[in-house]
Specification:
about 15% strand; 12 strands; binds pyridoxal-5'-phosphate; alpha/beta; five-stranded mixed β-sheet; Aspartate Aminotransferase, domain 2; seven-stranded mixed β-sheet; Aspartate Aminotransferase, domain 1; about 450 residues; 3 domains
Length: about 450
């Protein structure tokens, strides 16, 4: 075992990857079986030589889809923030587990500092707190569990006693549905509230549905509002939803996994107005901020709710220090990766102003792209600013066919989404490493491609 030598190998392979990202920003698509057979993935009894090992590893890395290149627009993450990468590499070599101060030491302070800052940005008061779960889906899950236990503290001991009803919009993330199954609420007890043409929850419909459920003797307990919906990037009317939750005494959760990053922007933070009234708030720094996957936070107005739902005594683990320093008492897992450090190294080095620039730049990219498609007669646009999603169709070409062809020909990696019955291309302005020119080049590539392929793209 020679870590220095392995780090040299890392440097060599990373340099090759960087070069390949520039020369071939979209990886060749391989049929899975062929790919798995071409690469030497097999694990055997005997060791292999260093040179063979290095060659196999390099091939493996270079044949993996390039999600950090300037042509990757397929999901809600992209680019590479080097200061955050540095932090994550250090987290790996320190191999800290974040459950106790005894083991985590200074790193516990890093996590607490970030949570403190996020809480203050949202506008939560004294007594609030938070933690880093493994992602947005799990953050939403923790919110639902806290809401359930807040409604009836016996459930965690005795199991479900009655039918509880949760509310979310038709545009919300699918984790809400899955989480209802895990939490014992049941998928059938989620009420999907319709949205307007912008993809924002219709609050009158929410109110009507709650009344209807109450009149049937059911128990509403939880409302999920989304700040930055997965497809359109819309934000539900948080202030109005907060008022409904207050009226019916329901847990108000804001899923700001995508849109929460606007908290750093003087220009766009108004989008989160109303979050200060929420009971819980989820935010992913691995989306708009560009911290390596995954870096997710949930903060709660009353941090006792985290302890009430997630703490467990364990003598072998908690050997001193108060609960405030033993972060494991607030988390779903036992051993927990240090996801805070990579966000901290970025934030510490570029400051809150640097985070603001990242966010504002993404909106600048998105606004320019939106202006372009809305002023061009061959595009139909479905998304609405301010949003980092630009959803459109071009020349009536089937978006699924178009996205598949662009990938197959190694032009662009972009995906599609849908609102009601309409499917469209979903371009995401989430990679803040892209300049405006690089981002708008997307349309040039797309139009030239369609021009070249012509009839092949028509069904
Ligand atoms: C609005 C929203 N919430 C939650 C999630 C889930 O986050 P994660 O992928 O970290 O589980 C996503 C993912 O795209 C999302 O868009």
């Amino acid at each position: 075992m020679n870590i220095k030598k392995d780090l040299e190998t890392f440097d060599e392979i990373f340099t090759a990857l960087r070069q390949d990202e520039i020369e071939n920003p979209v990886s060749k698509v391989f049929e899975a079986q062929t790919l798995f057979e071409t690469l030497d993935l097999s694990l055997r009894d005997d060791p292999i030589s260093d040179d063979t090992f290095k060659a196999i590893l390099k091939e493996l890395v270079l044949k993996t889809p390039k999600t950090s290149s300037n042509r990757f627009f397929n999901q809600l993450f992209g680019g590479r923030q080097s200061r955050a990468v540095l932090g994550d590499l250090l987290a790996v070599v320190m191999n800290t587990s974040m459950y106790t101060y005894k083991v985590g030491g200074a790193q516990i302070g890093v996590e607490k500092e970030i949570i403190k800052q996020i809480i203050s940005k949202i506008g939560y008061g004294e007594g609030s707190g938070g933690t880093f779960p493994t992602g947005g889906s799990l953050s939403n899950f923790m919110a639902m569990i806290m809401a359930r236990d807040h409604f009836n503290a016996d459930i965690k001991h005795k199991g479900m006693q009655q039918t509880l009803i949760a509310y979310t919009s038709t545009e919300s993330h699918y984790s809400i549905d899955k989480n209802a199954a895990f939490a014992g609420i049941g998928r059938d007890n989620i009420r999907y509230i319709r949205t307007n043409f912008r993809g924002e929850m219709q609050v009158e419909a929410l109110d009507k549905q709650i009344k209807e459920d109450l009149s049937k003797g059911l128990q509403p307990f939880f409302v999920n509002a989304t700040a930055g919906t997965t497809v359109l990037g819309s934000t539900d009317p948080l202030n109005e939803i907060a008022a409904v939750c207050q009226q019916y005494k329901l847990w108000f959760h804001v899923d700001a996994a995508l849109g929460g990053a606007v908290m750093f922007s003087e220009k766009y933070k108004y989008l989160l107005k109303g979050s200060e009234y929420s009971d819980s708030f989820a935010f992913n720094a691995h989306k708009m901020i560009g911290v390596p996957l995954s870096c997710s936070m949930i903060v709660v107005q009353d941090k006792r709710k985290l302890y009430q739902s997630f703490s467990n005594e364990a003598d072998y683990l908690y050997q001193g220090d108060d609960d405030d320093l033993n972060l494991g008492k607030m988390s779903l897992q036992c051993g927990r990766r240090n996801d805070a450090l990579k966000f901290w190294t970025l934030w510490k080095s570029i400051g809150t102003k640097g985070l603001e620039q990242i966010v504002d730049h993404q909106f600048e990219l998105a606004n320019k792209a939106h202006d372009y498609v809305s002023s061009h007669p061959d595009y139909i646009v479905y998304s609405h600013p301010p949003s980092i999603s630009i959803c459109f169709n071009y020349k009536n070409i089937d978006p699924k066919l178009l996205c598949a062809a662009l990938l197959e020909e190694q032009e662009i990696m972009v995906g599609y989404g849908a609102l009601a019955d309409t499917t469209f291309v979903r371009l995401i302005a989430v990679n803040s490493n892209n300049s405006v020119e690089e981002f708008l080049e997307f349309f040039n590539i797309l139009e030239n491609f369609v021009e070249r392929k012509g009839d092949e793209l028509v069904k």
